[in-house]
Amino acid sequence: MSYVKGLKCRECGKEYPKEALHVCEYCFGPLEVNYDYEKIKKSLTRDIISKRPPNMWRYKELLPIDGEPKVGLDVGFTPLVRAKNLEKVLGVQELYLKNDAVNYPTLSFKDRVVAVAISKAIEFDFKIVACASTGNLANSVAANAAACGMESYVFIPHDLEQTKVMGTLVYGTNVIAIKGNYDEVNRLCSEIAGKYGWAFVNINIRPYYAEGSKAFGYEIAEQLGWKLPKHIVVPMAGGSLITKIWKSFKEFHKLGLVDSLNTKVYGAQATGCSPITTAVKEGTELIKPVKPKTIAKSLAIGNPADGFYSAKVMRESNGWGEDVSDEEIIDAMKLLAETEGIFAETAGGVTLAVAKKLIEQGRIPKDESIVVSITGNGLKTQEALVGRIGAPRTINARLAEFDELVAKEGKVYAVKA
Length: 417
Ligand SMILES: *Cc1c(COP(=O)(O)O)cnc(C)c1O
Ligand SMILES: [Zn+2]
Known about the structure:
38% helix, 4-stranded parallel beta sheet, Rossmann fold, binds zinc ion, 13 strands, 6-stranded mixed beta sheet, binds pyridoxal-5'-phosphate, 15 helices, 2 domains, globular, alpha/beta
């Protein structure tokens, strides 16, 4: 049974059938999935959800597929970690990390959107899936396509981290590196999608794909005991995740699954690619495209598709936007690892550094609940830390040499960078 009525234009409200469409033919506004919330309200309760297996499909009534999922059955329900050590360092009382660095199967939140997109592509009878990616989406499309036996094409900027390239090639997908930045890759892919008729998960089936991110928000609410946090900090690339987390909170409230909606949503970017936070800080609705230059490559989208809507979420929720330097990103990656034992990618460094900054600015009060969104794994962006975290001491396998090391310093530390 499906609870999806069809698609609806976010701007003019025109309704469309459930098809592989993404822009309104009248006003060129983006299309969004339109649910029958009355029907969902009658059939979905906290109790029903709680009894289902721990993955994102426990909220399937609020995800846009008609049948059973075709791939990614184990995606989601990642840990919400109470960060006691980090609380002490930041001087706050209630801090959580939603940790999609351990999402299944490719260690980023992109497995959520891809699970929905590929399931939908199969329902639409596409034979080939594809994407334009800043790295993590490439990993996820390649892995999930392999897992369900579909052919896939992945388009990436030529200068991505090695691990992200290797973590795509290994699945036997067709990888095409483009001599250009993500925005140029994306433009080319729009042309290819039109000409070749493939299911580009984040282009022609984007309305369905984007809905997968909502599970990140539903899980936070359920894991907090059917409550929403007072503050949430979210990294932004195209700006889709932040809008869908906000949507997930509003839906849970509308369905009575949480009692109150009083969350401020904060967007985080790297200063070297901050078109959305710049617009928020300047108080303008206009998102001015930029040429990205940052180590946070997964967030390096200079012309964000959902920039306008993500800025709106920050305004509507009384949140804010902030950005941080590459230096601050690295410091925050180290801080997270050293305090909580979580190795997040550069995007995680962006989010934590922004959270820290907002707390220091007094924008996020110290005595209210805060969730920091960790969306990707540090093992995939190791280049960012080369020369920044020291090196092991190397000695021969002789006790005398170890004794000497200890005697010399009283204690053995790693060699500092
Ligand atoms: C893609 C990505 C994001 C941002 O996603 P958008 O929905 O495009 O804003 C955040 N973190 C990581 C690790 C990503 O790969
Ligand atoms: Zn329209």
